[in-house]
């Protein structure tokens, strides 16, 4: 009787064990283990993977998305049910946070590297290049000689008189230049010598040859174009407009204050402290009349 009861007990125990094994989930013998470059370890079953994105089903059934470029190593390992293996899986929030932090760090490193490369590739500007792209003050000391061309304007009842004026003008100017362009103000003193020749008045009385030296103070505006500001020698064009105030006694009404325009073209030699040599033309205007002159200009710029 005891043997029969013991046999029934063994049969029931075996049935229970069989039932438990039937109800237990069937786990694969191997699992995918992803070792990330940041030290994280994911265990589960890789569902899909492309060059840009992979998906793995974790042990708890959740689906995680990862970047294949962040994987250091991917292996197949036997399924382990111990607690140590279970602890290898980092919680979802921590993993995602770390991945984003790593991506941000990588992006910052790449940006810093690109900036460094850009800085190393940039060529430093020379002093001449800096000077050519900034406003800079200058001063000029110039001497200009002129000789009359043609005839002086004829007044009512008078005959035209040959323009025999010779002049010498000294100017000092201050201005600013930017690249090829410059503009400045100047103040000077002008001495003009006139040999009037034969002047026939309305009463037909000849006044003979009357030499006359006149003194003026010209106040003017210069506009300058330097076509190669970085070069040691360059072509320069100057346009000067001025008002000349007569300062000595007006011994002849024919000559008084006047307005003049004088374009000059020449060559500049040197940078910083430079010299200028040019030829030009001057047109004087007074009371609607005009007189013409050829000019030679020499100057030093600081």
Compact description:
With 302 residues, this protein is an alpha+beta fold.
Can you offer a commentary on this structure?
The protein is α+β, with helices and mostly antiparallel strands and 302 residues long. It has two domains: 28-103, SH3 type barrels (Roll); 131-301, Porin. The protein has four helices and 15 strands. The protein starts with a helix and ends with a strand. Residues 6-11, 13-27, 83-87 and 197-210 have low confidence and may be disordered.
Features:
alpha+beta, SH3 type barrels, 4 helices
The total count of helices amounts to 4
Mean pLDDT across all amino acids: 77
Please give the radius of gyration in angstroms: 50 Å
Order of strands across the main sheet: 6-9-10-11-12-13-14-15
* CATH architecture assignment of the largest domain: Beta Barrel
Helix content: 10-25%
**CATH fold topology of the largest domain:** Porin
What is the approximate shape? rod-shaped
> CATH first level of the largest domain: which class?
Mainly Beta
Strand runs, count? 15
Question: How much of the residues is beta strand, in percent?
Answer: over 45%
What string gives the helices and strands in order? HEEEEEHHHEEEEEEEEEE
N-C termini distance: 132 Å
Largest sheet: 8 strands, antiparallel, barrel
Instruction: Give the domain tally.
Output: 2
Low-confidence parts, pLDDT < 50 over ≥5 residues? 6-11, 13-27, 83-87, 197-210
Which structural class is indicated by helix and strand composition?
alpha+beta
